[in-house]
């Protein structure tokens, strides 16, 4: 698989990213548990700030490190819901820690995230390129703003000619009398299989290359439908990092 120059740049630090790149798959499979430890001897040797900063670095890299700190502070809520109806905040002693995984939930409503989560692009950067090049429509109108956050029920449509996993049918020398659109063949890319899942908050139709944004990610029965390769405890440390900075 050809790796774009931009993808190489983003994958050089060994951080897990939103990409099907083979290097990213290697990082995902070989991420050492000690590097992300929140308990045990490795964590004891680190200060609280070091643990929170590592958690912020790892989670930010996966949930889009291209967003500035000023922007991310506006996106992360002060209180996060949990499955028990409680809230996760720095002043709550009874909060459930698994609610911290929702700290980046607002990003999932961005058009570039939806295009990537729907498997219309092989990376978050490719998704942005498709949007900027005018290949994506929002509710039937061409839209060129990757960072725009859609509303529940909005429909995002991608031109099938630019979808990385769709291959056009072979040219037929005989003229076709059918006026229907040509049928594209699905051809999976190398190293794509581990990432082939659709979050519950998206309804994807591959016949029309469109996605409906149903709702924001939620927690139900102690399970979160927001994809993340990290445990909730790591998200909790990252959340505390941002919540403390907000009080400075």
Automatic annotation (TrEMBL):
Alphabetized PROSITE patterns for the sequence: RIBOSOMAL_S4 (PS00632), S4 (PS50889)
Domain of life: Eukaryota
Record carries keyword Manganese: no
Gene Ontology, cellular component aspect: mitochondrial small ribosomal subunit
Boundaries of every RNA-binding S4 domain copy: 109-171
GO molecular function, one term: structural constituent of ribosome
InterPro entries for the chain: Ribosomal_uS4, Ribosomal_uS4_CS, S4_RNA-bd, S4_RNA-bd_sf
Keywords: Ribonucleoprotein, Ribosomal protein, RNA-binding, rRNA-binding
Keyword Cell division recorded: no
UniProt record, GO biological process: ribosomal small subunit biogenesis
Family of the protein in this entry: Belongs to the universal ribosomal protein uS4 family.
Stated name of the protein: Putative 37S ribosomal protein S4-like
Lineage: Eukaryota, Fungi, Fungi incertae sedis, Zoopagomycota, Kickxellomycotina
